[in-house]
Amino acid sequence: MKLKIRTGFGYDVHQLQEGLDFWLGGIKVPHTHGALGHSDADVLIHVICDALLGAANMRDIGFHFSDKDPKYKGIDSKILLKEVMALLSREGYEIGNIDSTICLQEPKVNPHIPAMKACLAEVMGIPEDDISIKATTTEQLGFVGKKEGVAAFATVLIHKQ
Ligand SMILES: [Zn+2]
């Protein structure tokens, strides 16, 4: 039987605002500002969802979980990620690996990466070794550098027999 391997990509941005909880990679990162959004605005989970859906050619996160739907107001993005995993597994797909980058000027993301990996591995039911999370600033340039927002990118491989 032929192994079907597909790749997917995700990109997302959220505004940062003072006084909001900052959910990133499934955990709450201590900071003066947090991301603004209809859900909990977890930009890393959103790009992973979009990359997974894209790999399976199943549209995007906004298609499945509308930001007009009050049901998703303030929702924990880990619940959305679980639902995306269920959609893919219904189609017979398994995860190969995930690679991601968070673009944020501050706070430093690196100390939180082990906790994010552990959290996402548990939510997705895959080994931590299959989840890579990287972080970069944008050297004070652009909306990320000016601390107005947070951006993230992710690529994934999925496969099925
Ligand atoms: Zn988002």
Describe the structure in your own words.
By secondary structure, the chain is α+β, with helices and mostly antiparallel strands. It has a single domain (about 5-135), classed as 60s Ribosomal Protein L30, Chain: A. The chain is built from five helices and seven strands; from the N terminus they run E-E-E-E-H-H-H-E-H-E-H-E. It has helices at about 45-55, 60-65, 75-90, 115-125, 140-145; strands at about 5-20, 25, 25-30, 35, 95-105, 130-135, 150-160. A five-stranded mixed beta sheet has the order 4-1-7-5-6. Helix 1 (about 45-55) packs parallel to helix 3 (about 75-90). It is globular and about 50 Å long. The N and C termini lie close together (about 5 Å). The protein binds zinc ion. Zinc ion binds near residues 37, 43 and 46. Zinc ion binds near residues 14, 37 and 43. Homotrimer. One of its GO terms (molecular function) is metal ion binding. Pathway: Isoprenoid biosynthesis; isopentenyl diphosphate biosynthesis via DXP pathway; isopentenyl diphosphate from 1-deoxy-D-xylulose 5-phosphate: step 4/6. One of its GO terms (biological process) is terpenoid biosynthetic process. Keywords: Isoprene biosynthesis, Lyase, Metal-binding.
